[in-house]
């Protein structure tokens, strides 16, 4: 979808065919982490969409309770692309402006039924930052009367809102629930302080590395702990597949740090049959 005349956001809309007509049927706008790449790919095929990465029906799909909108944001992520490199966004504000323009276009032309459907913005990891900012913009438009929309709510999942605070909390929290011993918690806390100091000094690459090292240290001390739910051991979370559980390992975090997608299978699928099916990316662009 063209948002600025020069930037195209990839949007996948999945509508439940038998949604109840006698009551408002909700719509979920899903925003994934930038590190995870495509919401159309990762959020849809690995997390909540009707099909899994092997294009098999998913038992726990959110499509059973809402229509789903997956957006690859910002421009340059997943199947979203600019018509010229100069139109890539450089700030969170620019990225969210594109998302707000997309919602307005959906209301006006592309998906007018959204006017009667409560919209829930769901963001995971860095997508949580976009979700919070987008929620503010939309709520202001609703109050002013310039936007005919019902904002059902904003949902944040492991949102990348305040990494310094997150890093500082890990040691004490995991120590309280006996996931870290007395010897290790001091090192974890020390690294949390380092993350904050490096961020305040605007040494963001070093802060990211320290944060990754901190997670690696935690995982090395309690290898059986699920990094998706610290109250459970690996393999105890029935909703997650083995590939999901492995996605937060130290090697995967290193991939995320370097900008690589975290799941080889989804990369192959998105760049193979799914890309051909969508026919979204012009030849020669990627």
Overview of the molecule:
- With 286 residues, this protein is an alpha/beta fold.
- The chain folds into two domains: 7-157, Rossmann fold; 163-248, no CATH class.
- Helices cover 44% and strands 12% of the residues.
- It has nine helices and seven strands.
- The chain has helices at residues 39-48, 92-110, 126-144, 163-176, 182-200, 204-221, 242-246, 250-257, 264-278, and strands at residues 7-8, 10-14, 27-31, 67-72, 81-82, 119-124, 151-157.
- A five-stranded mixed β-sheet has the order 2-4-3-6-7, sandwiched between helices. Strands 1-5 form a two-stranded antiparallel ribbon.
- The radius of gyration is 20 Å and the shape is globular.
- It comes from Digitaria exilis.
- Belongs to the peptidase S10 family.
- Its EC number is 3.4.16.-.
- Residues 1-21 form the signal peptide.
- This is Carboxypeptidase.
């Amino acid at each position: 979808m063209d948002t600025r005349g020069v930037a195209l956001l990839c949007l996948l809309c999945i509508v439940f065919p038998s949604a109840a007509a006698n009551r408002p049927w909700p719509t979920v706008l899903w925003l994934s982490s930038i590190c995870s790449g495509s919401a159309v790919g990762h959020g849809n095929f690995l997390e909540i969409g009707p099909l899994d990465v092997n294009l098999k029906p998913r038992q726990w799909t959110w499509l059973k309770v809402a229509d789903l909108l997956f957006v690859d944001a910002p421009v340059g992520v997943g199947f979203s692309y600019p018509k010229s490199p100069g139109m890539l966004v450089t700030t969170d504000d620019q990225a969210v402006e594109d998302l707000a323009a997309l919602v307005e276009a959906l209301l006006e032309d592309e998906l007018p039924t959204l006017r009667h459907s409560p919209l829930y913005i769901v963001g995971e990891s860095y997508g949580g930052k976009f979700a919070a900012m987008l929620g503010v913009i939309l709520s202001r438009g609703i109050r002013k009367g310039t936007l005919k929309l019902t904002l059902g709510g904003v949902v944040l999942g492991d949102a990348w809102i305040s990494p310094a605070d997150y890093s500082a909390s890990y040691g004490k929290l995991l120590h309280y629930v006996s996931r870290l011993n007395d010897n290790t918690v001091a090192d974890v806390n020390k690294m949390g302080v380092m993350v904050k100091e490096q961020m305040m000094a605007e040494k963001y690459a070093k802060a990211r590395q320290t944060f990754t090292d901190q997670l690696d240290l935690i995982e090395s001390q309690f290898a059986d702990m699920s990094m998706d739910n610290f109250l459970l051991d690996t393999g105890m979370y029935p909703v997650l597949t083995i590939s999901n559980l492995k996605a937060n390992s130290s090697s995967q975090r290193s991939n995320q740090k370097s900008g690589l997608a975290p799941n080889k299978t989804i990369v192959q699928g998105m760049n193979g049959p799914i890309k051909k099916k969508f026919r979204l990316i012009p030849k020669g662009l990627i």
